[in-house]
Design brief:
By secondary structure, the chain is of the alpha+beta class. It is built from 23 helices and twelve strands. It folds into four domains: 215 residues, no CATH class; 81 residues, no CATH class; 62 residues; 68 residues, Homeodomain-like (Arc Repressor Mutant, subunit A, Orthogonal Bundle), CATH 1.10.10.
Length: 478
């Protein structure tokens, strides 16, 4: 059969292909590429402990300073679970590594909620159900799934039989009492009402705001203020005061964790360091975090000698060969990982040079994974693995690599610009509009067109939604 793909001629487009089997090194490299730096170091330490032929640099230093190495018996060599620390007489703790160059990032939304659940007095069953509900919230803090559907999912996933009534009780009496206030709501109306109910300072404006949202929500969303005044028997000034209270509420409680939990942080270590050396951008990987492991020369010498004919000796020799091969594959996979990481980040910096010189988001060029794959010659899936969960330290802050990727469009002058730039202009336009007569989507189209950005009304609506900007009617203030 020819190596190239061929149609079978059956009329169904069936294709016969020769599948390429991945080598152990390729499999290892793929797995290691997915790991951020901290996880990579932990993975290396685990490999050192599980494979006796890999040398820990700290233990190697002990040997060079006169620490005597213990001779192993065949029984120990054949024990696949022998950790590396048993290969030495001196079983002291590892020395401290250089201090991590870490950065504080805010606690994750879901983790903060789960931590709060741990302080509430609930039985094991109720705690498990509450945790499942929390993990089912969307990123803005809302529960968008019907409770009946959630009950079915809970039974299938964790084997607990429940119903919508029990879940409703947990949602209302447990989850909706967590911070940030409004979390666990099933609608915008419920979210806003939860926040108003939680206010301790019960002013007239707060009470009126709560009445409006609970009894006149539809009229409020349509800005029919005259009808609200008539039905509730309140004045225009009272409506204005209530409106100001509502306007300051949070529509997306899941998005405020960064502000509310400034003292609850986790540490991340940048996978890349970008420095501007007199106008020259230089990318490096913080290598001191990664142990420079190597294969033990003693085991290599052991394999160089011809084993005797005893069954025990042959088994030991086979075991050592397997471990040596595994160690060499692992070391090579780490080398390939580092090379792939460096090539990818170099390509990103080259593609976005203008941006990386000063950190101005409007200078970010449209860039997708395919662009970097074409430059590096790597697969898109490989680039995706590099980009996912990785961070770079720059002179103007630390960013996830995903921050630098975005779609683009072409201006009327033929210049390609990033959607990030367009969104910034859109947001600035809305921020500076006359709130008594906010800009409609059609007017925003005209405004951006006058600036050279040819864009459709549908795209404006899409970007506005992504920026959490309400429609014009909802932005009007009285």
């Amino acid at each position: 059969m020819a190596n190239e793909n061929k149609k079978t001629g059956l009329g169904l487009g069936t294709t016969i292909t020769q599948t390429q089997k991945l080598t152990p090194i390729q499999i290892q490299t793929i797995k290691l590429l997915e790991l951020p730096l901290i996880d990579l170091e932990q993975r290396i330490q685990k490999e050192i402990e599980e494979n006796p032929v890999l040398e820990d640099p700290v233990e190697t230093e002990n040997e060079e300073t006169g620490q005597e190495r213990k001779k192993l018996s065949l029984e120990e060599v054949k024990d696949e679970n022998t950790p590396a620390y048993k290969l030495y007489v001196n079983n002291r703790g590892r020395e401290e590594k250089p201090q991590y160059n870490t950065f504080a990032v805010k606690e994750s939304f879901y983790q903060s909620l789960l931590d709060q659940l741990g302080y509430r007095k609930m039985g094991e069953r109720r705690s498990k159900l509450a945790a499942f509900i929390v993990c089912s919230l969307d990123s803005t803090g809302y529960l968008t799934r019907p409770l009946e559907s959630l009950a079915n999912d809970i039974y299938l996933r964790i084997g607990i039989e429940t119903d919508a009534q029990e879940l409703e009780d947990i949602l209302v009496n447990e989850i909706q009492h967590l911070d940030p206030v409004g979390v666990g709501a099933r609608s915008v109306q419920e979210c806003l009402v939860l926040q108003l109910k939680a206010k301790e300072n019960r002013t007239e404006a707060v009470e009126n705001a709560q009445k409006i949202l609970q009894t006149q929500y539809e009229e409020f969303t349509k800005k029919h203020f005259e009808k609200i005044m008539s039905k509730l028997g309140i004045t225009e000034d009272q409506v204005k005061e209530a409106y100001e209270v509502i306007r300051r509420l949070n529509l997306h409680p899941g998005g405020q964790v960064d502000d509310s939990y400034t003292d609850q942080t986790q540490q991340i270590t940048p996978d890349f360091i970008l420095e501007n050396e007199n106008g020259k951008l230089v990318v490096s990987l913080p290598k001191f975090h990664i142990p420079q492991i190597k294969v033990s020369r003693d085991y290599e010498k052991y394999m160089e000698k011809k084993p005797d004919s005893s069954k025990e000796e042959k088994e030991a020799s086979s075991f050592v060969k397997t471990k040596l091969d595994s160690a060499k594959w692992f070391i090579e996979a780490i080398r390939r990982r580092q090379d792939t990481m460096q090539r990818t980040m170099d390509a990103i910096v080259k593609f976005q040079t203008e941006y990386f010189l000063d950190g101005d988001d409007t200078k970010l060029k449209p860039m997708v994974l395919k662009n970097i794959a074409e430059v590096t010659g790597l697969d898109i899936s490989t680039i995706s693995r590099v980009v996912n969960s990785k961070y770079v330290q720059t002179p103007f802050g630390i960013y996830p690599l995903k921050h630098f990727f975005s779609e683009g469009m072409v201006t009327d002058s033929g210049e390609e610009v990033s959607t990030r730039e367009i969104k910034k202009i859109l947001k600035d336009s809305v921020d500076n509009e006359d709130k008594s007569k906010p800009l409609t989507d059609e007017e925003l189209v005209d405004l951006l067109t006058s600036k050279g950005y040819v864009i459709s009304r549908r795209t404006i609506a899409k970007y506005r939604s992504q920026l959490n900007i309400p429609i014009a009617r909802m932005r009007r203030e009285i």
